[in-house]
Design brief:
By secondary structure, this protein is of the alpha+beta class. It folds into 2 domains: 75 residues, Roll (Ubiquitin-like (UB roll)); 70 residues, [2Fe-2S]-binding domain (DNA polymerase, domain 1, Orthogonal Bundle), CATH 1.10.150. Helices cover 30% and strands 14% of the residues. Strands 2-1-5-3-4 form a 5-stranded mixed sheet, with helices on both faces. Strand 3 and strand 4 form a beta hairpin. Helix 2 packs across helix 5. The longest helix has 14 residues. The relative contact order is 0.15.
């Protein structure tokens, strides 16, 4: 079995993999970085989105051997050095950008890539950037609001408020 070396979240790591091992499985099983989720194994859902050499990649669509020598960032590398949430993660929490949390690592990684390329994206640009990531819980508005907030832009008040409670009969 080949041995591959990558710089993962700033640390040099080596792992033995079969030639057919997907990068997502090398990260989860070989390196025990389980924050990258496997949602579909067909690159449709985006739950496994990571960064390889600075570009967003669906880790279920890349062989681990293709990442030999690469710089890899996973959701585990997004937190601050003291373990606190980074700006994007905090915005997702503050603006209801997550519910069950399964898609959240991929959404955060897609957001980080978007904000690196476009620090002040508009609503349409945000939605376009997330087209490869599926969330079955939030309806996306909370995610869009979180990205607006993470980019330092105002979040429309009417869209960031919680629904009014239903009056008891």
């Amino acid at each position: 079995m080949p041995e591959i070396s990558m710089r993962v979240n700033g640390t040099d790591r080596t792992v033995r993999v079969e030639n057919r091992t997907l990068l997502v499985h090398a990260l989860r099983d070989g390196l025990r970085l389980t924050g990258t989720h496997v949602g579909c194994d067909t690159s449709q859902c985006g739950a496994c989105t990571i960064h390889v050499d600075g570009a967003p990649v669906k880790a279920c669509s890349m062989l681990a051997v293709e990442a030999d020598g690469a710089e890899v960032e996973t959701i585990e590398g997004q937190a601050m050095s003291d373990g606190s949430l980074n700006t994007i993660q905090q915005a997702f929490q503050d603006h209801h950008g997550l519910q069950c949390g399964f898609c959240t690592p991929g959404m955060v990684m897609a957001t980080a890539a978007l904000l690196r390329e476009n620090p002040k994206p508009g609503d349409a640009e945000i939605r376009h950037a997330l087209k490869g990531n599926i969330c079955r819980c939030t309806g996306y508005q909370g995610i869009v609001n979180a990205i607006l907030a993470a980019s330092g832009q105002p979040v429309p008040a009417a869209m960031d408020s919680e629904p009014a409670p239903v009056a008891a009969e």
